[in-house]
Amino acid sequence: MKTLGNIIWVVFGGLEIAIEYFLGGVALMLTIIGIPFGLQCMKLGVLALWPFGSKVSYMEPQHGCLNLLMNVLWFFVAGLGIFITHLLFGILFYITIIGIPFGQMHFRLARLALSPFGKEII
User: What DSSP line would sit under 21-46, residue for residue?
Assistant: First the structure.
């Protein structure tokens, strides 16, 4: 069932979201300072491409202050735009009954798009 959900996800918007993540990651990696943000964007792109069956867990707070600083910077550099995209897709999918699981996935990814540092994708 996860595979079918992922295939339907890719056809109905998942590919566009993943491309947004990948293009944003490449753009962020053009500078040395943006490399950590670009790598995080690439990880989120892989998750956005095949989200059903994956989990996001919180890592131990080994870099607590650094994670907070990176999340704040992330919010202004890339997080807000990606959050709005997920929010709009989520609302669009919630219009139909069949699209509710996909809307929930977009809302889950929207939460992650706001503060991805300090989280691990399993």
Answer: HHHHHHHHTTSSTTHHHHHHHHHHHH
| Structural contact between residues 25 and 38, judged by C-beta atoms closer than 8 angstroms | yes
Dist CA 98 CA 110 (whole Å): 20
d(CA 96, CA 13): 15
Do residues 56 and 120 touch, judged by C-beta distance below 8 A? yes
pLDDT in tens, 91-109: 999 998 889 999 999 999 9
For the stretch 9-49, pLDDT in tens is 998 888 988 998 999 899 989 989 889 888 888 989 999 99
Neighbours of 13 (CB within 10 A): 20
Which residues lie below 8 Å from residue 46, measured CB to CB, with a gap of 6+?
Answer: 18, 121
